[in-house]
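Table S2 (continued). Query chain:
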Amino acid sequence: MRQSPPPIAYLLPNFFTAASIFSGFYAIVLALEGSFDTAPWFIFLALIFDGLDGRVARLTNTASHFGVEFDSLADIVAFGVAPALLLYLYVGDTYGRIGIMVSALFIIFGAVRLARFNVTTSRIEPSVFIGLPIPTAAIMISIAILLLERYSTLSSFKVYILPLALVLAVLMVSNIRYPSFKKMNFKTFHFIRFLIGLIVVAMGIFIYPIEGMAILAAGYLLYGPLRASFYLVRRLIHRG
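Corresponding output:
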């Protein structure tokens, strides 16, 4: 008979979820203070905590309906409200109602994305995501701001963050599929090749953290539309 975990064990994954909320809130505080070169890093930190809570819950067998709902609410704060407010304060307020609309749509569509995910995956964890995951959208906004803050020569591209945010918002509620790494079967990988690739990527991010993460995030972002376009073209060719 499998022994159930002690009640205190249920606090651990929820602690990481709470830490994700706090990181998102602190990103908002820093954005309000104008620390745009620091605030995005706390959204990254929230992503780390968000990844830990689910894995800890599975490892300790403490997954619960409360934890799922708590995690979803944490996501809308850390990856919806925080990046949207960061976006608005960084560039949106310069464009009046357009900035308000884009920032608001990012939160609204992010909430729709989370609600749809909760409804469609209430029983089975998916092998793919339908629509761009909200953490990825938040990371893309954060990386864009970090790049602009790091390279002053890119300041003329600041206006393009708003269209980027709008595209991200639409992708979140789209039916485009994105890979989920939660159900990756590492047994099918060639271990040595995978390890070498992982080391190369880690070293690249260590040397160029912002640029490396930008490349990874952009690759993941483009994967969905490119995959959908490929299957659409192939379907049209077969019909022709």
